[in-house]
Design goal:
By secondary structure, this protein is an all-alpha fold. The protein has two helices and no strands. Keywords: Membrane, Transmembrane, Transmembrane helix.
């Protein structure tokens, strides 16, 4: 939950800019690549946190 509280102010503007650029762009491959990079950038830290957790 703490990650969500810390991450929300940073992710909101980045997601907004990415979606705005995707909406205004007519070049589908560039939009798809931007969205893919955003998803990977968001998933990477969470994946590292999950992997680093020790089972109880």
């Amino acid at each position: 939950m703490l990650l969500g509280l810390v991450w929300t102010p940073c992710v909101g503007p980045v997601m907004g800019v990415t979606l705005t650029l995707a909406n205004q762009s007519g070049h589908l491959p560039q939009v798809a690549m931007s969205m893919l990079l955003l998803v990977l950038a968001l998933a990477f830290p969470i994946t590292l946190l999950v992997i680093s957790q020790k089972p109880h």
